[in-house]
Amino acid sequence: MMVYQLPLTKLHFLNILAQVFFDYLLVRFAGVNAFAYLLMSSFLAGSLHPCAGHFIAEHYVFEQQPRSAKDPANFALVPETFSYYGPLNMLTYNVGLHNEHHDFPAIPWTRLPVLHEIAKEFYASLPYHQSWTWVIWQFIWDKEVGLWCRVKRKEGGRRVAAYRENDLGSNKQAGIVVPGDKR
């Protein structure tokens, strides 16, 4: 199910330590019910709540693709991300403007609607969703949509901005200097 796995770094372990420490303080000063509430909230974030549909909507292919698109050797263009243009973007930091985010990852979430308006003609022909609730419904009931409907590139991995998989930490461990990497 994992498409890409990041190498664990000291920062990851520091993050885990900070989370455990916060959880300890939360239980100590607010009680186990407060901890249970936050724990259950994290499970519900990936549940049947309409806002939880954003991950499925953004990263799963919902349109019927020609059979040739399933063969990586054909280089058929299958959209890898889908945007959502609905009112819930106001509640979710414009996470639905997903193609815009992937095209311009350095644009802050507060400016994504402006970007969309400026470049609307480039996004008008791309597939998008109008309802995260419908996305969840379709994901559950449509036999053509499911966990296997993610795009996997022939070359594997993914590119994050201008970096490849081995640029995200393993180079530093190997003593390789990557231009522009200030870590």
Task: Explain this structure.
With 183 residues, this protein is mostly helical. The chain has eight helices and two strands. Helices cover 40% and strands 2% of the residues. A two-stranded parallel sheet has the order 1-2. It is globular, with a radius of gyration of 20 Å. Residues 158-163 have low confidence and may be disordered.
Widest sheet: strand ordering: 1-2
Largest sheet: 2 strands, parallel
Question: What is the mean predicted local confidence, pLDDT?
Answer: 79
Radius of gyration: 20 Å
Label the structural class: mainly alpha
Point out poorly predicted stretches: 158-163
**Number of strand elements:** 2
- Our estimate of the beta-strand percent is under 5%
- Per the principal axes of the C-alpha atoms, what is the gross shape? globular
Query: What is the CA–CA distance across the termini?
Result: 30 Å
Relative helix content: 25-40%
H and E string:
HHHEHHHEHH
Tally of helical runs: 8
Quick tags:
single chain, 183 residues, two-stranded parallel sheet, 8 helices, 2 strands, 2% strand, globular
